[in-house]
Backbone:
């Protein structure tokens, strides 16, 4: 299903109409793999020349999170970051506590270990969040 259709379907499900402004929010989120907060997304849209209100950006982000089209990341600093989930494989995050740099990683050993733990306890894994808070190389040499 095309990204455009995914957005329209999510908006319809929430009783909202499709608008060019909401499309610009979706387009901005899909344009990059960066992990940005809502204010950064809003500013990037405005800088591109689109006339979108801050409220539209925040409401659209909420709809996209609710409909699992984007992921909300809580990094413990009070600012939620967002990343799109379109055509992305599962990954976890390394987060520098000094500069805020976020690096994605995937480790099959960690994934299989989680599966073994769940199986051992007889549970079913719904989702998980694995975030390692680190000091990156650049910050550790400063």
Residues:
């Amino acid at each position: 299903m095309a990204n455009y259709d995914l957005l329209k379907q999510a908006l319809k499900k929430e009783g909202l109409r499709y608008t060019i402004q909401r499309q610009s929010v979706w387009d901005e989120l899909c344009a990059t793999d960066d992990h940005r907060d809502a204010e950064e997304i809003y500013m990037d849209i405005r800088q591109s020349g689109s006339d979108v209100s801050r409220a539209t950006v925040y409401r659209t982000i909420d709809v996209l999170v609710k409909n699992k089209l984007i992921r909300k990341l809580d990094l413990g600093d009070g600012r939620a970051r967002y990343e799109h989930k379109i055509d992305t494989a599962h990954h976890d995050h390394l987060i520098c506590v000094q500069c805020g740099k976020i690096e994605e990683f995937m480790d099959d050993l960690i994934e299989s270990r989680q599966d073994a733990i769940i199986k051992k306890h007889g549970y079913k894994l719904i989702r998980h969040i694995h975030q390692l808070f680190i000091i990156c190389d650049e910050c550790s040499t400063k």
